[in-house]
Amino acid sequence: MQNEREKTFHAPGMGRRSFLRSGAAAVATAAVTAAAGTLLTSREAEAANRIAPPRQISLLNTHTSERLTAEYWSRGRYQRDALRAINKLLRDHRTDTVYPIDPELLDTVHALQARIGTKTPLHVISGYRSPESNEFLREVGSGVARSSFHMRGMAIDIRAPGMDTRMIHRAALRLRAGGVGYYPQSDFVHMDVGPIRTW
């Protein structure tokens, strides 16, 4: 089984740059607002939502049975409380370590949920992974990268209940948002926001 660093893949579809460019105006608005340390007025918030509609993800941690549906982006900015809740849900369940999840990964998960057309929570097999957990998994199995993107909050392993994992894999590839790995024996798809590649 190949690890998350190998093999480049070039597939047609929406690239990460295209995805991010579509919300560039809203990101600029958020950056200016954050720098100014001000709150958006209701009119400004409505304008920001027209430029980039709110983004929501729905997840269930298969190890802790915790679930959440969070609108992590709205009113032209990432929502801190939602990000904190997501970070907690995606913590390393072995060490209980919470780590900041890259918002770009959340955008990719949001785009995947929209593409496959499900509002059912995606089942998370692995989110953040501490160096200790990563080394443990390297010792007991194969296909775990020494410098895994999981250790940087930039990767997630998921499945969608009731959906063929091959379909999830194909949808993830079409996003062209980073690395995509398919693990049919374990029935999950790996997604990260590193370089575009597949295994």
Q: Return Rg in Å.
A: 17 Å
Total beta strand runs: 8
Please bin the fraction of helical residues. Answer: 25-40%
Spell out the helices and strands N to C: HHHEEEHHEHEHEEE
Count of alpha/pi helices: 7
Distance between the termini: 8 Å
Question: What gross morphology would you assign?
Answer: globular
* Biggest sheet overview: 8 strands, mixed
The average pLDDT value, as a whole number, equals 83
What is the strand arrangement across the widest sheet? 3-2-1-4-5-7-6-8
Strand content: 15-25%
Low-confidence stretches: 5-15, 17-37
The secondary-structure class comes to alpha+beta
Number of domains: 1
Protein name: Murein endopeptidase K
Family: Belongs to the peptidase M15 family.
InterPro entries: MepK, TAT_signal, Zn_M74/Hedgehog-like
Keywords: Cell wall biogenesis/degradation, Hydrolase, Metal-binding, Metalloprotease, Protease, Signal, Zinc
